[in-house]
Each structure stands twice: as C-alpha cells, then as structure tokens.
Amino acid sequence: MALVPGTRLGVYEIGSQIGAGGMGEVYRAIDTNLKRVVAIKVLPDALAADVERLARLQREAEVLASLNHPHIAQIYGLEKSDATTGSGHAIVMEFVDGVTLAERIAEGPLPTEDAVAIATQIAEALEAAHEQGIVHRDLKPANIKLRPDGYAKVLDFGLAKLAMGEMAPSGPAALTASPTLTVHATFLGVILGTAAYMSPEQAKGKVVDRRADIWAFGVVLCEMLTGRRMYDGETAAETLARIIEREPDLSALPSTTPPAVRTLLERCLTKDPRARLQAIGEARILLERAIAQPRAESRANVPASDERRHRRTGPVAWALAGLLAVALAAALLLWAPWRKAAQPSLVRINADIGADASLMTDVGTAAVLSPDGRTLVFAAREAAREPSHLFVRKLDQLTATRLAGTDDARGPFFSPDGQWVAFFAEGKLKKVPVAGGTAITIADAPAGRGGSWDTNGLIVFQPDISSAIGGLARVSSAGGKTEPLPRELMGRPRFPQLLPDGAGLLYTRFSPGGVADILVEAPGGERKVLMRGGYARYLSSGHLVYLQNATLFAVGFDLHRLEAAGTPVPVLEGILALDNMMGAQFAFSDTGTLVYLPGEGVAGDPPISWLTRGQATTLLPTTVNWSNPRFSPDGTQLAVDIIDTKLGIWTYDLMRGSLDRVAVGANVSAGDPVWTPDGRRIVFRSSEAGGGAISNLYWRRADLTGDVQRLTTSPDTQYPGSWHPSGKYLAFYQNSEKTNPDIWILPMEGDEASGWKPGTPTVLLNTPANEREPMFSPDGHWLAYMSSETGIPEVFVRPFPESGGPWQISSGGGAFPVWSRTKPELFYSTLTQQIMVVSYHAEGSSFKKDQPRLWSETRLQQRPRRRGFDLHPDGTRFAAAIAPQTATAVKQDKVVFVFNFFDELRRLAPVSAR
Fold this sequence. Notes:
alpha+beta; Phosphorylase Kinase, domain 1; Transferase(Phosphotransferase), domain 1; Neuraminidase; 6-stranded antiparallel sheet; 5-stranded antiparallel sheet; 13 helices; 63 strands; about 15% helix
C-alpha cells in the first residue's frame, strides 16, 4: 500500500517517503501522541495482497520485537488497519537520522579507524541477533544507517530467519528471496544489489546459518576499507558465479590496514563455512582490541589531567601542532633582520586546523592567512546540522578559538593590518575583530563570496553569483552606501583583488559556456585580458599566481604596466579547487607563507540527489559540472545542464537509468531546459551554429527526433522560465544592454484581448528592478518570479495575464520559486541555501498566503549557472545539489603550510628588477 503524505495511519501522521525496495516502502511519520519521529514500513501496492510477503513483514516485526540492542533499529509496534489499508500491515520503527553506509562508501574508502569502529558496532548487532538464534541474511551497506555522530544501526530484518527454523529456498527461489534482486519493470534486465553480499553457500541455494552473516560482514568491512565491491557483475547470475568460482581478493586493502584486521577478513571470507570464523562475537573482540591497542599506546605518556583534552585534539593533531610551532619558530628566526643574508629553505608542514570541525569548502576560500603570516582564520562547521563559524588560530598555538557572532560564515578575508577579518553570512558582508568582539554588518550580500580590503578602507566584493545580479560592488569598510562597479555585458566578474597602491583591480571573468579569463582594470576603467585561467592572486613577491586543473601557475607581473612579465610556469600541484565559479583553496601571506588544502582536482560538483524532508539519497551518481535540473511533466525524465567541453543539455531517464545528450548542432552551446506541458518538446537557450554567446530561444522534440527550431531572434540573452499549462505561452526573462532583466511572454497562439501575436515576444514586467525566473502556477492563473525591488532577491506572485498584486512571498531573501502540482504550496530557496515552503489560498483575484516555513534543514549547494534543484511532480521530493557538509562528505580538518614560498617562486619564475 502507498501512504499519502499528510494522512494518518492510527496516531501516526504520514510524512515523506524515505526509502523503497522489494521488501517494503518506508515513510517518515510523526507519532502525534508522543511527539516523536518514527519510520513506518509497508509493502508496495503490488505486493500488499501477497500472503508470503505479508507473512515476512509479520515475521520481521516479531524478529525486531525479540531484539533489544542499541545498534539495531527498535520496533515500536505493528499496525493492522483493514479500513485504512485493506489487508495492510505496517511496522512502526525507530527513525534513524543519517545516511546509509552505502552512501558513505560512495564518497570513497573510509579511514581505517572509522571502518573498524563501524564494523565493531555491526558485529555487536549481529552478535545480539545470533544469540537469539536469528540470522539476518541480507547484511549489506544499504541496510546499515550511520547517524551524524558516527553511531551505526543495522536495519531491515525482512529476510531474517531462525537458525533452526525455515529452510533457505533453492534454485530460482533463492534469487527471488533477495529483495534487491528485482526484475526490471521492462523485463529487459536485472537490478543488482544483494547478490554481491551473498555467501558462497547462499549463492548455491543451500541452507544458510549465522556463518552467512559472517561472510557478508567480511564483505562489508572490506568494502569500507577499499571503497569498492568485492564481487560485482553486469547481471545477478554473473555476480553469483564469481562468488562461487573466485577466491576473495584482498589485494586492494590499503597498506595501513592493521595485520589483525587482515587476518580477521581472511577468516570471515573463507569459502568453506566449516573453516570460516564460527562466531561473530570473536570478530567483535578482535576489532575492539584493534581499536584499543593504538589508543593505549598513544595515551601511555599522557598525564591524567590532560586525558580529556588529548581525546578531543587527538595525538596526530598534537604532533602536527608541535611541528607547526617549531617550523614557525624556525621561519621567524630566518626572517629576523640579522639573518637577512641567509638563504631560507622551503619548509612544508601538514597540520591539523586545531579544532574538531570540518572546513567549509563549498563556497569561497575556507582558510586564509593574516598579512604577517602568524594567524590562520578559517570557516568550519563543528557538526553536520550546525551552522558554520569562523575560527582563529595563532600558528604558534595548538588549538583554534571560535569567534562569536559568526554564524553561517563563509569566505573570510583579512584587513590590511590583520586586526579584522571580513566574511559573508546570512546574506550580509560582515567584519569581526580577530581578537574577538562584536561582528558588524557592512553591506548586503545576498549570496556573497570573494572580497578584497585595501589600505584606504575600501572593500570590493562579489555580492551575488547569479547571472542577472552578478557583478562586483564596492563599499567602505566602515559601512555606508554600496556602489555597483560597471560590469561587462558578456562576462561575469569573480574573485576581485585590489592591487597595491591603487594600481588597479584584478579579477576573473567567466563567459557563457564556462570560459574563464584573468583581467586587470586600471584606475581609469580600462580593462585588459591577461591570460586564460581561474582563481588568481597578485603576491607581494611581484608574481601573479592562478589555478588551473589543481595546479598553481606563477608569472612575474608588472604593476606599473599592468601586464605579465614572462611565461607562466607550474609551481605547485595538488591544490583543491572549487567549481571555477566558486574559488580555490589556497591563500598567501605578505611574508611568503602559503596555506592550502590538498586535492586531486576540482571539488564542488556533487551528485544529483533525491532530497526529502527526512534525508538525501543519490539520484544520479555523477560529479560532472551540472545545474538547472527540470523534471518532465510525468516525472520519468530529468533534463539538466552539463558542461564538458561546452555547455549542453542532457536528459536522464529515471526508469532506464540512461543519460542522453540533446543534440543542438556541432560546437553549439545550449542550456536552461524547460519541458512543454505535454512533455513532447524541450525549449532552451542557445546560439546559432558557430555564433558566439548563448542568447535566444530554441526547441526540439524530447525524443530527439526532428531538427532544432528557433523560436526568437534578439540581440539580448534570453532565459526560458516556464510554460503556461495550456501550452499557449512561454514565460522567459531577458538581459538587455539598457535595462535590468525583465520578464517577457512568447505567445504560441493569438490573444485578441491582450493583442499578443503568435511568435512575437511581448514584455510583461519591466520595472527598474531585476525580474527573472518566471514560473506559472499549475492552474495558470498566477506567475511567481524573483525581483530585487526590495534591494535583495525576493519571491513575488502576481496574477496572469491580468495585472494586480504583486504579493511578496519570501522574507529575508528568496530565489528560484517552484510550484507544487499536488498541493497549494509554493517552494523557494533562501539566501542560506535551504528550501522554504509557503501554503496559499487563491480565489478570484485574491492571493492569500501563510508564513513561510522551513521545509528541510538540509542545505543545498548553489550551482554556478542558476538553479540547483527542482520539485518532482509528485510534490514530495526534489532533485538537488546537496552541500558537502550536509551530505556524507569527508571531513576536511587538515591544511598544508609552505614557509618561504616566495623564494621558491623567485627561483622558478624569476622577476626582473624594476
């Protein structure tokens, strides 16, 4: 049976669906009596009348009721309500917040210590079950939940059996017993899941006992350590054959794997059950010893009074901090006046940041150095659901201090004297004393990132990254009026830096299609393109440095002529970069110290995820540079922008799992897909073949047959917004050379009342404010859109086609409205990248709305080319980009310091004397 959000099952108010599989569908719900969140598991509609499946659900409830262990999800009850569910049964269980182990492994191998800790908890849960004579039979990463605090819970005992009870099926029945060996709806193939974790005897259809769980436990532990499946094939049959025929391969285990853990894996993964480890409790004991041994060694010489602090900071952090302090002292000694004749050597130190927190690498540069190189300031989050803050660490100290008043901080940058640090938070540009004190608001910055502060007290910053509002602005560091800087029509300026002595302004310009150029602007306004590149900075050594593909390049730079002096050379590899629109993770002091985050390439491109109120799961596991997702009207396909060599549109078939490019012509960029109401066509913005910047509107058939057809001709860039449900009108917005973005209508049929002509664009809203992202309501009577008339982006609604209103929907900033097709609800994102929902009541020309409320605490990652989420037609879930610290991101708590780096620069890229 399918449960409808908003309805009740007994005392439980049903929320969103949070999981689905062959053994059941799971929903988040609220126990209205006890005011707690629960999980409710029911059978899918297709199986609700299946006597065998009902018996399994009943048995699962009974199994869970017999188990009471902290690492096994608890059962609260079994609901049976013929009036509500027909023959339905529903298990009410503990709701475990967090991600599955499968989702965590998808991010990469777990550190050995983490994997061992999780495996120990799993072993404890299995031991409790085995002591009750219960065999799980379906242990796999997807059935293990990890809470944000690292606590593990084993779920889904739907295939559990009593050790001496029911016999395992054989032959074909053995395959259908596995809930994730599900025949595809088209009968063209098989979706592979549980087969990869079956023991050899289970794969052969033989009787299984607790030793099958021990085998699966070994497979799961190995997968945690290596980040990949031990047995995998294109079909279930191929996978089962490999399990039966091939010996387990442990060669991919990391070299840091303790010998005891290797031995344990060999015992668990012995193919003969008689020679296999016979009790999971033995595995638990071995793992507990593996955890305790290094801890005991590291604490051997720690005084009892320092025990608590040592646990929080960690032995590695202490060692690195000590090395850092020594390195800093050495560097300071080398810088002393009486040592000027000495030639300092390059010193590189890997160091802990000094706080139990994870760096905020999703927006801007996370860690920056004071001009004198003695202080590190960084933006970090201490827990997944907590706001980020700024932390200050003196390099000769062991720990960092959190600065008060810096909630939600991103993108810090120092004042020239090093006494203040500016940052972006809550839609504002703020500053706070480095020594601690009150944070002061300087200016509005709806989605700010990237700033520079000069000796005259001027700050140039980037208040917003959107294409319509994007650009640079300047303001006094004391506050006051913000003035926008003139911007180039076909470029988006990013990452400003005020050059010394008022010599000019350095920045990166991004053009449509993802091309990046480094520019410099003279005080008189003359602009000059220096070179192709990404995030760039001028250094007091006389060099210009910039990042390309995780490699730092350097070239001499003449401040008087504002031009490069020499040929760029690579000077350092392996620096973590964000998407080119977002920045890079390195910073310099004026004294020649470099701090950076190591990385192999570009970060900031998360997979496309399903987001419900309860959790985020992967929809499309890709790390390509994507944005602007749009569901087809029937919800079976997702169109999305992807940049490879150029901006293009792709469609993802949710049923088949296939990703196809929408061809628009050779060497032609295209973006911003919008489906027609009947789902037969996709409209998008593009350029003519070989014709410069993206501009006008085109469409083609969604089945990729037929030719591309042009809809508009204009010298201005146009962005499709949405189709009227009748298919008669397309709402779009247009960037003009003379005005801010305005909203237009493209009639597809004539309209005598309005005088609109078919195929002739007509302006609908053209106020002095920026108006964009028009979205028709499901009934076509209302138009939601973004406007900057209040000074920051907000969401408004007005009637269509009549004039009236408008009604302001958001408060404190809002963007990218999207209507629900199933309820009177309007969604939008906040300036802090969270989704809000507003219920409304529309009657005639009156539009009444409730107060906005937070739909999910999960933070989105803002995409560089506009929209990063879309609501599925069922109204319960979004396709979205999830911010790394909300998703299962690897903790970023280490940086690399390189002292005396200017000397290395002068050696690799000599600067001629001026």
